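tl;dr need the bound structure. longer version: we got a ligand (magnesium ion) that a collaborator sent over and nobodys looked at where it sits. i said id run it. heres the input, straight from their email, havent touched it
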Amino acid sequence: MSDITLDIVELLLTAQIYSKYPEMDPSDLPKDIRKFYWSRDHKTVPKPIRVTVTDIEKMFQEENIKNKIKTLPFVTIDDQEFSTKITALDVGAEWFQKKDENRDRISHNPALAFYYEKKQTEGADYSNAKTKVRPKEVDREWIESLIAEIEKEEGGPEMLKLAHISAPEDIYQTMKDFVLTHEQEEETKKIVKAIQYRDYLKRIGLHDVGKILMVGPPGTGKTSLAKAMSEHLATPFVEVRLSMITDQYLGETAKNIDRVFALAKRLSPCILFIDEFDFVAKTRSSDEHAALKRAVNTLLKAIDNISLTTDGVLLLAATNHPKMLDSAAWRRFDDIMKFPLPDVDMRKRILDIVTKEIDGDFDTAEIASLTHGYSGSDLRMVIREGVLSALVTERTELTQKDMLNAVATFDERAIIKTNEYED
Ligand SMILES: Nc1ncnc2c1ncn2[C@@H]1O[C@H](COP(=O)(O)OP(=O)(O)O)[C@@H](O)[C@H]1O
Ligand SMILES: [Mg+2]
């Protein structure tokens, strides 16, 4: 029995179970099937799923699938419509269950697990299978259909200039590539739990959670950690760039801010990330345009009116200039997360992560000891410099000398940068 036949039967069974039971939704489908039958217009996988021979050929990249299907007594091919169908679900299911000896497929496919659990098949566990499949919110298809919908709405296109939305599956920063301080680690764990247990928090009336201000110098990982969290939680990431609020769109800005917050509620649960939060302070303290001040007040009000427990929106804001913020801005947040420059131990761990795929003989501990005051991002740049200069002489193995030279180059550049600031 070839695996491809099992693949086909799994697809046919899944499609039929999904179509038949009203309680099944797209998150019950394995990712490949969900993506294949996703409809952008309907923002779902419409029921019923009708599996055609062409679908099967495309999905499994096989030709002449028909002969394989014909060996299965419980599957028919409608020659006119070219569609395939399981004629007796229980017969097909029984056949499949015998072949899937280790229950590997059933335990990774919520629709199948649902069906077999109903039939009281030993070992079938629907809720456990659910934990193996990431929800539809992870898929870029889901986010794209939502964006397409917003684009058609009044004011939609303008709002999308202010906010950038990413699907978790398109985020490459992951938690395991991160070096956190002990405090950050504790804080992150709490945030993750708060979003997972938000119904409980709501029930006990704990509403002042889920608004966090990330504070620290540039390059210390604020943006990346926010993204990594969204990847980890499998929730969409909505990024607001306050610097996009310029005179150009000023008339509409207040409205657009409200739209972005409404959008976040629609994407819920999600992470709403506001970068460059000090922008708020800048406009409040200076003689800015009245419309700009209005926009900022709208933003502050919107922050007050959104909540993790009722709206499922986790609000993360970041600033490199905490001193600029006034108390009105500070008190909007339930918690502060500090992003200090990494100490020597953290620098070594960051260097180890950045160089883990790089061949060569070098000593990250020595580099860590020479890079006091460097941010995580600076360390990345040092390694990049080392890698690129080695490539110039056709080398993909790095030496300690490469690394030390890279540090020296970086230091030189840092001096140039400060000189620029001074005049
Ligand atoms: N503590 C850290 N551990 C691992 N990588 C880090 C750390 N701090 C910074 N980096 C890396 O530096 C780069 C820039 O970080 P970023 O999130 O843009 O910083 P910020 O938003 O604070 O300016 C990212 O590629 C990130 O992976
Ligand atoms: Mg940043």
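gonna send this back to them w/ a short note. The radius of gyration is 27 Å.
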